[in-house]
Design a protein that fits this description.
binds zinc ion, alpha+beta, Aminopeptidase, Immunoglobulin-like
């Protein structure tokens, strides 16, 4: 987020063509929803309360068939205007299970939001915006909302980001509460609940808060044909909020972090005071011809021979465009590394060259995708054989890695991600055969340094499903043993003592992970510390193995005890 007033003004001058106070620029060529379809709320009670598809189907279809007409007032390529006598349920099923791909050709469909009305205006026609459609259930108070599928695919993930403007309207008599139901959440593992409500941004107060309430997620019975047997039905995320007239609110799955925000942030580093610390470059262009920034941080004041000897730490982020937490984490890393006065920052710059690509999937970020690029490809499954057509950015990064390896060793790699299902932050590493526990040392250090880090969620093996990821390729193809993926939850972290108590992440907490990540790198690179920790870990694990064997021998017939021992062993390092 841009907190500094000058930055915000610069931002407006550079990017925004509107008078909006929030730094999400309007972009051309996105789809968005405008005014809602209207439907009678009385017919919707069953839909709200039942998760059985049959009950829902019968009640809803019967009720809605009695309606004379539904006036569809949204604009969309796939649905005609003024459809009469449709059934709401059938329409939803057909909308949600539409097999048609949204491709770049469809981006020509542009319409400015319609704001000269006393209606509530939905808008997602801005950078990273994602809302496909809104449907008015009860006049001025309740809406069903539909998330747009990823560009280039028909799959829906959970990323949503849209604004709502409430003009003054005399029809509100008592309370000013709006209720939204996002009806096409593809899975129920979302971490939203009363402890972690949905995020909203109030443009009058200029800040994000979680002042939403009555937050629930439930199986809504609308069959999800795209997911075959994996999940039978879509889920609804429902939430309410109090509003003021003539105010615009933004709602998002997690804190947005746009390409424009990244460019602004990098601009703040392009100053004289940092000129011997940071250099800017690019690793090519995205499919939509956006520059992919690449930065190098080291002490450039050193003599050339010293610089030549330095090993490299290679960091990448945001290959999954909806995983915005990873951008705040890597911004925390960069902030730490460029610190002029901090002794550890100075030490790290003197010892290493940091090559950082803070945002890989820029087109996906701009168009509000969660997982894929705008050709519908999951770039983190393209590392084995990236190509010029679908995955040129991964191809270019691999070339940069090859180029780097011609000149210096890459000692450490980490790819930063956000996680939608799990709380806390954690690492995926790669097991090194021969040197037992080496990959676990960094996990142990980070656990000590950061209270949102959960070592029990760490994984040290490359599963078959992850064989084409950046972490796996850096390890298997480029032989970089310390190759990691750092996951930070998009929503929450837990209390280390009471894991059922959830706290919502905020931006500062994400940046703190980046800060502690650098502290941990410093400890990892201290060879005395490294060897001490390795010995400690191996001794500890040997001790556990011995204890485990003794227990198994002594209590061979006691299955319960045996299981408990296995469990405690696993809990230390998975
Ligand atoms: Zn990811």
């Amino acid at each position: 987020m841009i907190n500094n007033h000058n930055d915000l003004n610069n931002y407006k001058k550079l990017v925004l063509n509107t008078s909006e106070e929030i730094p999400y620029s309007r972009i051309k060529n996105t789809m968005f929803c405008t005014e809602a379809i209207k439907i009678n709320k009385n017919n919707m009670n069953k839909y709200q309360q039942n998760d059985s598809m049959n009950i829902l189907n019968n009640n809803l279809t019967n009720n809605i068939n009695n309606q004379k007409s539904l006036k569809v007032v949204y604009h969309d390529k796939y649905f005609k205007e003024n459809i009469n006598k449709i059934t709401y349920y059938e329409e939803l099923v057909s909308i949600l299970n539409n097999e048609q791909l949204i491709t770049l050709n469809d981006l020509n469909y542009i319409k400015e939001p319609f704001i000269n009305s006393n209606k509530i205006i939905f808008d997602s026609n801005f950078e990273s915006g994602n809302l496909h459609m809104s449907i008015e259930l009860e006049e001025l108070s309740e809406y069903d909302l539909i998330i747009r599928p990823e560009f280039g695919t028909n799959k829906v993930y959970q990323w949503f980001f849209f604004s709502v403007y409430v003009p003054k309207n005399e029809n509100y008599i008592n309370n000013k509460i709006l209720k939204f139901n996002i009806i096409n959440i593809p899975k129920d593992k979302s971490q939203f609940n009363s402890q972690c409500p949905v995020l909203m941004y109030n443009t009058t107060l200029n800040k994000w808060s979680r002042n939403t309430f009555n937050v629930f997620i439930y199986n809504n019975g609308i069959k999800n044909e795209k997911l075959k047997n994996e999940y039978l039905a879509y889920f609804t995320l429902t939430f309410s909020f109090n509003f003021e007239f003539n105010t615009k609110y933004y709602f998002a799955y997690s804190y947005p972090y746009t390409y424009t925000q990244l460019k602004l942030y990098l601009n703040t580093l392009n100053k004289d005071m940092y000129k011997n610390i940071i250099k800017f470059g690019k690793v090519g262009l995205t499919i939509n011809k956006n520059i992919i920034p690449y930065i190098v941080i080291t002490n450039f004041n050193s003599n050339i021979n010293e610089i030549k000897k330095r090993k490299c730490v290679f960091l990448t982020s945001r290959i999954h465009p909806g995983e915005t937490s990873s951008s705040y984490v890597i911004q925390g890393v960069i902030n730490f590394l460029i610190n002029i006065k901090n002794k550890i920052s100075i030490f790290l710059r003197n010892k290493y060259i940091f090559k950082i690509i803070p945002m890989i999937n820029i087109d996906g970020v701009i168009y509000g995708n969660y997982r894929t690029n705008i050709k519908g490809r999951d770039l983190n499954r393209m590392w084995v054989e990236p190509n010029e057509i679908h995955s040129s950015c991964v191809l270019n990064i691999k070339k940069l890695i090859q180029f780097t390896l011609l000149h210096r060793e890459i000692e450490f790699y980490c790819d930063f991600h956000g996680h939608s299902n799990k709380s806390n932050c954690f690492l995926y590493g790669c097991e090194k055969k021969g040197v037992q526990n080496m990959e676990k040392i960094f996990m142990k250090i980070l656990q000590k340094n950061n209270n949102t880090f959960d070592i029990n969620s760490c994984v040290n093996k490359i599963n078959q499903s992850k064989i084409k990821t950046g972490r796996a390729i850096l390890k298997n193809e480029f032989k970089i043993d310390l190759s990691y993926c750092l996951e930070s939850s998009m929503i929450s972290y837990t209390n280390p003592i009471n894991s059922k108590k959830y706290f919502p992440f905020n931006i500062e907490k994400y940046k703190k992970i980046g800060f502690d990540f650098c502290l941990s790198l410093n400890e990892l690179f201290d060879s005395n510390n490294f060897n001490r920790l390795l010995n400690e870990l191996n001794t500890f694990n040997n001790f556990l193995n011995i204890t485990h064997q003794i227990n198994v021998n002594n209590e061979n017939n006691n299955n319960n005890n045996n299981q408990n021992n296995n469990k405690s062993n696993n809990n230390i390092f998975i």
